[in-house]
Amino acid sequence: MKKASRQPMLLGTALFLAAGTLFGCKESFLTNAAAPQGVLDAGVLSNVAGVEGNLIAAYRQVDYTTGVGGSQASAASNWIWGSVLSDDAYKGSEPSDFTQINDAERYQWTTSQVDGILNDKWRAVYEGVVRANSTLRLLKAVVRDKPTEISAADQAGIEGEATFLRAHYMFEAYKMWGKVPYLYWDDTLNIRKAPLEPPAVAAEIMKDLDLAIAKLVDAPRKGNVGRATKWTAMAYKGKLQMYLRDLTNARTTLNAVIASGTFGLEDSYDKVWTGFTAAANGKETIFAYQASANDGEPDGNNANYGERLNFPHSGSPFGCCGFHQPSQNMMNSFLTDAAGLPLIVMSPGSWNVNDAELDGAKTATMTVDPRMDWTAGRDLVPFKDWGLHDAAWIRAESNGGPYSAKKNVHEKASGAQSSVGWVNTQLNSVNIHILRYADVLLMAAEAEAAAGNLDVARGHVNKIRERAGKTAQGCGTPTDDKARAALLLVYPDCAGDTRIAVPINDPKIKWATYRVSQYAAFPTKAFADSAIRAERKIELAMEGHRFFDLKRWSNPTSGDVLITTLNCYMGIGGCAGVGGGKESTSSATLTTRRTYLATATPVAAKNMLFPIPTTQIELSKVEGAPSLVQNTGW
Questions:
Q1: Inter-residue contact 322 to 396 (CB < 8 Å)
Q2: Which spans in 178-327 are helix H?
Q3: Where are the alpha helices (DSSP H) in 411-509?
Q4: Are 82 and 545 in contact (CB under 8 A)?
Q5: What is the pLDDT of residue 578?
Q6: Packing angle between helix 437-450 and helix 454-468, nearest 10 degrees?
Q7: How many other CB atoms are found less than 10 A from the CB of residue 3?
Q8: How far is CA 370 from the centre of its chain?
Q9: Using an 8 Å Cβ cutoff, are 72 and 164 in contact?
């Protein structure tokens, strides 16, 4: 963000997390019984440090993966729910590991395995709500009892940040389940509270965002990048309006964010997802999980724990675990025509026919979008500054395909890798974007297209494509002798060239012809919609948005876009107009890419909402009658 110091919020001191636990879960702070050190009670925490500590604990919950009930199913990125359940990615790894995701990916959501990880997500969301409410409750108590303890400016800022966080967590619940309970600052943790209908939930989120906008100021409080500001809440409001299909008001809100000049596109795509401290929390960041490595936490739990499975496996510098692998469908989306426009837009009937592995040898004579190699690791292409991606890095290619996740992986030279923790090579301080400026521009483009302003919509898309065309993956020649030798054996011109990002026409690039051009016109609204949706798929690939985009583009009752796209992807339904090539098919003329998807359950209208975890329904019972009601179809 502009005008902000580069000092991020510190996440994870023992006092602050204990404070969040005490006030969030009503549990005592556990100490050594033989040598008690004191208790964190309301008396200890009823001061400015206690309130600020509770607020930090509420922020920490954004990536809830190490607490009770935490798992990668509650990762900040939503990589399971937003990417693996879409056409972005496969679960990856091998069938016998984290088997709960196998059933989720095949849309068999009523199994006990999926129910368990849905419960993880539910608990994570409501733990976040409770921590935010605990902060608000404690703030009110301190202001009442010690009126001079907290300045008026900090009172407003704390209230605004905590209310924004409650809105974020409730939005996660809303987009997953729709009809859910809404907890307020004066609610205790009431698991039997009756749910609100989805429109009412959305209305309460909107109230929270409006309050946050009124309380917060332009710059992050205390100069800590990562804290919510007025414009963070405003951008989030625009996102909620897009989910509500209120494109008229979304256009107004998003245009205000754009006009504020608070955010902007990074000048190079490699600076969006990075471990380099100098590029973290840059002008594109609106709201992100602030990962922290080597901060004194002995197990590395404040690092990018939610992504720790999503690294290349044994044989790579990371050692584990090969999850969240880009799909063939996703990789084909990066192919362009000779002019540099996406085949997914320009050749809608044939863009996805390629079944062959897109390694560096195959794409050496093809035109591709350079974002392919900022998003995915593929053979015979440099992997940041770690050397050539290699088939040996893939855990089980027959299950997850030949590609690796890349955005969440740090650069070796960044020093972002954790020095502690289980498989510390998988832990780093790469921030996880929940909302970034490119997302705002593309939502604004949708809203402008809906208003008939096709040239304005095209301008937003072209800004993103202009940035995409500036840099590509370079040699990134590694310092490791073995990795360097392997790279130079294939690409001897890379000798001495350690640049990770280079101009897309750099002569040392031998593994692809990178080409991105801008649209000369959006001749019709239908074309504009196609181009904007394709740009979201390419620009935000593997960032946990795709399933929810398909959902919000669908008729809320029929789920038409979600159903058509994903059934075609899985080889279950017809693909008229979608463009051949399915991940699993019985057709003699098409290759089966992922055989396990042959047993997938067809996507239906009920998949517009996830089933509410059965544990939560049981816990909601009052005299045998549940307060929570299962979503339709489940």
A1: yes
A2: 198-215, 230-243, 247-260
A3: 437-450, 454-468, 481-490
A4: yes
A5: 52
A6: 150
A7: 9
A8: 20
A9: no
Mean pLDDT over the full length of the chain:
91
First to last CA, the chain: 43
Q: Write down the domain spans for the chain.
A: 7-246
Amino acid at 585: T
Look up residue 503 and give its DSSP letter: E
Q: Which two tokens stand for residue 149?
A: 């303890």
Give pTM, 2 decimals: 0.93
Does 600 score more than 60 pLDDT? yes
Q: Which residues contact 602 (CB under 8 A, 6 or more apart)?
A: 107, 563, 567, 572, 573
Residue found under tokens 């009658």: 625
Which pair of tokens denotes residue 200? Answer: 């009412």
- Interhelix angle 112-145/48-60, rounded to 10 degrees, is 160
- The per-residue pLDDT for range 210-253, each reduced to its tens digit, is 999 999 999 999 999 999 999 999 999 999 999 999 999 999 99
Helix (H, G, I), strand (E, B) or coil at 475: coil
Stated length of the chain: 634
Neighbours of 558 (CB within 10 A): 12
A 10 A CB-CB count for 278 gives: 9
428: β partners: 417
CATH fold of 7-246 reads 1.25.40
Parallel, antiparallel or unpaired: strands 513-514 and 376-377: unpaired
How many DSSP H helices and E strands does the chain contain? 20, 14
Q: Give SS3 for 367.
A: strand
Cβ contact 522:531 at 8 Å: yes
Q: What is the sign, positive or negative, of the torsion defined by CA atoms of 500, 505, 509, 515?
A: positive
CB neighbour burial string for 405-436, b if at least 16 within 10 angstroms, e if fewer: bbbbbbbbbbebbbeebeebbbbbbbbbbbbb
